[in-house]
Specification:
heterodimer; A: mainly alpha; 2 domains; two-stranded antiparallel ribbon; globular; B: alpha/beta; six-stranded mixed sheet; 10 helices
Chain lengths: 274, 250
Amino acid sequence: MEGDISKIDNILFNLGYLDLLAYRDSEIHRVNPVAKFITTVVYLFFVISFNRYEIKMLLPFSIYPLFLILRADLPFGYILKKVLYVSPFVIMVGIFNPIFDRHIFFSFNGINITSGWVSFLSIIIKYFLTVTTVIVLIGVTGFYNLCYAMNKVGVPKVFSVQLLFLYRYIFLITEEAARMTRARELRTPISKPVSLKVYGSLAGHLLLRSINRAERIHRSMILRGFDGNIKIAGRTSYRLNDFIFMSLWILVFIFFRFFDISDFIGKLVLKVFL
Amino acid sequence: MSHHIVQAEDLHYTYPDGKFALQGLSFLITHGESVAIIGANGAGKSTLLMHLNGVILPQKGMVRIGEMPVTRETLPNIRRTVGTVFQDSDDQLFMPTVFDDVAFGPLNLGFPKEEVEKKVRETLEKVGALHLINRATHRLSGGEKRSVAIATVLAMAPDILVMDEPTSNLDPKSRRNLIELLKSFTHTKIIATHDLDMAMDLCTRTIVLSEGKIIADGPTSDILINEQLLHKSYLEKPLSLQGCPICNKK
């Protein structure tokens, strides 16, 4: 019984925590949201652009999220946990590769490694790199600033404003859901799973309450002159550092993409020690 | 300054389900007056407030703000003149940060960006919330939310402030701060409330609603000692007018 209550509270806390991280101050936090957004989009593009059997050229790309985490002093364990949360889905996506793709990719000490396993590993690495980087980006920028940045670089307003409102009210709706579940649980002395009937009623009420709230919010918006077009006053200024951050990282990505640095280091090590 | 006048003439409103919400209200509130609207739950207080800012248009009768009747055509002007503070601040604070929320109204009014920033700072300073400017709205305490909600409305420089239960859900200290803040405003104030002690502190005039009708309209000091009237409207004498329960024990 208690489990359910604390579960919702936990989700709420976790959601809020990522947002709180964005309130910290570090040189990474201070970089203009637009610069961080563009850099990260380019990063994601490069990581995804590798073919499905690529592994070693992906590895150097872990430097970007690691750099952000370390320089912004984000809690590594928290972010890892967040990434692991969603990983079962990715494993589901890639798990059939080793079964269907049995072509031998290479042999190592008599053990045959099939292309299926290689592509599976490649998917997992790509997943870790991209999801970690996005979570870190939210943690060093804040959801709101990201929406603002999206808006700035030309993502349609419908989309960014939708996200903005989602983020503003998700806390209230989750809280409302938590209160309702709590009320139900406190009147269910013997712990029982929620029956479909009760669940339907809870969900229905939540929907009705959300609609009512949406109506009140809309009212308060039109009373303050809302004409269907949200205007956001951006207060961020661009500094030289933002430009340097963006261009240096993009150069690094290009370098990693077209120059096999893992191979180079490997050969170097072999040359030195053998 | 006739534009601060609020007038209702034979105002009627029936909800779609056939429930009579307002049944022939008439009153005139003049410039700078502070008026409390009191009455039981469902007496029609909120419905009346929604008429004053044009969220609901009168089905019969008329509302005038200054010289202007509230009609679909005059709405932009009405909303500029009448600022409404909602009961639940979470409905009012829909932008992610305090700055953006307070800036929302001025931006819609077409203020240039530098002006908006100045206005936001000024208004937040006025309600004593300048230190919250960069905070996320959902992380504020109840009292802070209320102050910011008032700032969002003040930023549009309204002449008339309409408030629905401004002191509800506030701790005593925040409530006192809010009362002092409202006292310092020179706007015409119309406040729907169950907090009769606040009405005593803030409002010189009180209108009592019961089942959609005005059953009393007069000086607050007269109305709030009329126990019979209060009883009839499901209200009670303000605590400050009741004797001390310890000293007066018989």
